[in-house]
Design brief:
Layout (H helix, E strand, L loop, with lengths): L16 H7 L15 H18 L16
Length: about 70
């Protein structure tokens, strides 16, 4: 889950969605991001997602990326 442009992962600290998804055995990853427009930012995000997918052994086709505003 990506926050809107500018804030950090604490933006979701009081969100209900990650806890609700956990009850359905769905992992959520909330990341801080200062922007989504630069290639370096997208490469970093891609590397982080790849690492988590490998670590949690997430099957192909079972990944959703979303967020608020620019993060969505």
């Amino acid at each position: 889950m990506l926050p809107y442009y500018g804030p950090n992962a604490n933006e979701f600290s009081s969100a209900v969605l990650p806890g609700l998804l956990r009850t359905k055995n769905i992992a959520t990853m909330v990341v801080s991001a200062s922007g989504y427009l630069a290639d370096d930012d997208l490469m970093t995000l891609n590397a982080l997602i790849e690492e988590v997918v490998q670590e949690l052994n997430i099957p192909a086709g079972s990944l959703v990326v979303g967020g608020l505003s620019a993060g969505g």
